[in-house]
Amino acid sequence: MTITRLLVANRGEIARRVFRTCRELGIETVAVHSDADAQMPFVDDADAAVRLPGNTPAETYLRGDLVIAAALAAGADAIHPGYGFLSENAAFAQQVADAGLAWVGPAPDSIERMGSKIESKKLMEAAGVPVLGEFTAETATADDLPLLVKASAGGGGRGMRIVRELDKLAGEIAAAESEAASAFGDGTVFVEPYVQSGRHIEVQVLGTPDGTIVFGERDCSVQRRHQKVIEEAPAPALPDATRKSLHEAAKAAAEAIDYRGAGTVEFLYDVAKDRFYFLEMNTRLQVEHPVTEAVYGVDLVALQIAVAEGRSLADLEVSPPQGHAIEVRLYAEDPAAGYQPQSGTITRFELPGVVSEFVTTGHGIRLDSGVGTGDEIGTFYDAMIAKVIVWAPSRDQALRQLAGALARAEIHGLRTNRDLLVNLLRDPVVVDATMDTTWLDGADLAVLGAAPGGDLTVPLSGFAAAIVLAEQARRSAKVQSRIPAGFRNVLAQPQQTVFLLGEEELPVRWYGGRTFASVDVDGVTVVEVASDHVVLEIGGVRRTFTVHVAGSHVDVESPLGHVALRRKPRFVDPSQQVAAGSLLAPMPGSVVAVHAHVGDAVTEGQPILVMEAMKMQHTIAAPYSGTVTELAATTGQQVEAGTVLAVVTPDSDEPTDTEGTD
User: For the chain, which terminus, N or C, has the lower number of CB atoms within 10 Å?
Assistant: First the structure.
């Protein structure tokens, strides 16, 4: 068949990615969107759009019946699932076919056979693909430690636990079952050996009627909490014989189920033993597919569509990979706060050096993003802002170019992992390709996630922000606008501008008049002042600090890095004050569990309730020993950031001046 109009059963950047290829192929496009996504860019990218009433995934993108109805209503003849949501749902794939629509993906039987990690391992073992052994709480011994508890369905680290003490195995299995049931609707888990020095290597395959094509491998070893952060192709520091064996094993895995379409076979590579083991097969397009496209010069979405249309790819020639490609996932999150997801409006998003979007056109930066300046990162979906991909002739050049582009990017309005990504790309562990899947979890994020400019970054940026605000005030003054900013007839003490850096106060003391001077930073000279930037010189080195003001938000960009400030209000509304011992919602989200009652005696660190936001769970614990005196939160409740969920009154010998603990 020939596909003429295609619906993407997804949102954000992957929807835009598929739409881009469809436009080039002359295929009309249809978007589906929740109410929360009605104004998002992917909706405008499509030729037609259909509303799915509601906001949560369960109400919208996970409703296969609504998605199929939308396709029929819009006259679509095919559905592309993207990744996540219903992309690996065999029942949905069958419903699409039953509705007379083309499914851009593998057969439902292939999805089902690979959907269970337990059953797929048995299938792979029979096909001669290396697999790890399995244990239960009854069969495991201390000699088998450490062990890994994993959810049979799903991924992304949910339903996964590392167990290092045998007496904790049963409890961790129960916890993993609960999390897996909540995240995937399937609480089945299994236990296998935990390879401590393992790398995550995955192989891209494309199953066709003419046979399985292998498009090399990717390394996805830089992970946080089992979620990928950096991906690259080809995999570095991999013996050629091992690389070849990985490709052969992946091909055998695909052919064992007569696979059709794009898929990824994931392996755990034990560096110390130079051995690899089958992890799972993702029967869909992967988030990190752009790095493979870059080094092989292919469009995997176009190939997916060709397979779905029944076209022969027998004449497709696969050349050796050219150059090196690296992808990072730019997230709205705070690494220093346990990767806490962030929500809010992106007030500015500028990335230098972008040569293409959603397709690779050659040397340089590719940007795959579902959002831009003015768009909202909400709480209902994943917090990824963009995938940033670079292709270069060598790995060293790719690392340097991507780090440089990210360092110069301007991303305002919410916290991101940008500084962490820049530092990772420059870290000797990544540069030397000695990373493993647990390395980042043991890293000092206070150092690795810090702005690259050093100790002077914040004070110099604060000084620049203060004098730009003063200059803006002078220029907008109704009278005496020609008097220098900060001028005083009698100089008694410095001016002071107070900002908030996160939740901490940042007082900036300065003198104005015919020139500006800093009280807090010795040896700094103000070379130039304008209403949007300042040139400062210190130690004989000049740097330009660009200041962006949006309401109370003041963002300072310089070669030292980005500093996000807020102007502290002179007066605080008493109604916004909270009582000592208040447990506040750290982000917008839903309350999924309450573990205490009013009147309960609790100890320091005891879980009080659990929130869920952006597919991650966050435990909110007692700040100290005491008594629960208020408990406003209820299971299922949607709350905004800063909402008082509970109050713990401390024991008499505990401190009582805590405000806003979470």
Answer: N
Q: Which residues pair with 386 in a beta bridge?
A: 330, 369
Please state whether beta strands 198-208 and 227-233 pair in parallel, antiparallel, or not at all (unpaired): unpaired
Answer whether residue 171 shows pLDDT above 70.
yes
Q: What is residue 520's DSSP assignment?
A: S
Q: Which helix (H) or strand (E) holds 42?
A: helix 41-45
d(CA 1, CA 305): 11
In eight-state DSSP terms, residue 661 is B
Name, in order, each residue with C-beta under 8 angstroms of 80's C-beta and a sequence gap of 6 or more.
6, 7, 8, 9, 10, 18, 104, 105, 301, 304, 305
Q: For residue 41, what are its two tokens?
A: 């860019």
pLDDT of residue 658: 40
What's the CA gap between 400 and 382, in Å, rounded? Answer: 28
Looking at beta carbons, which pairs linking 531-539 to residues 24 or more positions away fall under 8 Å?
531/468, 531/471, 531/472, 531/475, 532/468, 533/464, 533/468, 534/464, 534/467, 534/468, 536/460, 536/463, 536/464, 538/456, 538/460
The CA distance from 82 to 94, in Å, is 16
Phi, psi at 401, each rounded to 5°: -65, -40
How many helices (H) and strands (E) would you count in the chain? Answer: 15, 39
Residue 391 pairs in a beta bridge with: 325, 364
Q: How far apart are CA 296 and CA 215, in angstroms?
A: 7
Which of 65, 97, 104 lies closest to 82, judged by CA?
Answer: 104
Q: Which residues contact 338 (CB under 8 A, 6 or more apart)?
A: 618
Please state whether 485 falls in left (phi above 0), alpha (psi between -120 and 50) or beta: beta
Q: Name the helix (H) or strand (E) containing 121.
A: helix 117-126
Q: How is the chain split among helix, strand and coil, in percent rounded to 5?
A: 25, 35, 40
Residues 465 and 456: their CA atoms lie apart, in Å, by 14
351 to each of 331, 333, 650, how far by Cα in Å?
Answer: 14, 18, 48
Element (H, E) at 213: strand 211-224
Total residue count of the chain as it appears in this document: 662
Q: Secondary structure of 260-297 in the HEC alphabet?
A: CEEEEEEEEEECCCCEEEEEEEECCCCCCHHHHHHHHC
pLDDT at residue 273, rounded to an integer: 86
Q: What percent of the chain has pLDDT over 70?
A: 95
pLDDT of residue 339 exceeding 50, the answer is yes
In order of 217, 219, 392, the CA distances from 240 in angstroms are 12, 14, 21
Above 90 in pLDDT, residue 509? yes
Q: Give the model's pLDDT for residue 615.
A: 61
Angle at 275 between CA 271 and CA 280, to 5 degrees: 100
Average pLDDT in the chain: 91
State yes or no: pLDDT of 475 exceeds 70. Answer: yes
CA 441 vs CA 164, 229, 398: distances in Å: 16, 12, 24
Report the alpha-carbon distance of residue 223 to residue 229 in Å, rounded.
Answer: 5
383 in Cβ contact with 356 (< 8 Å)? no
Q: Global pTM?
A: 0.85
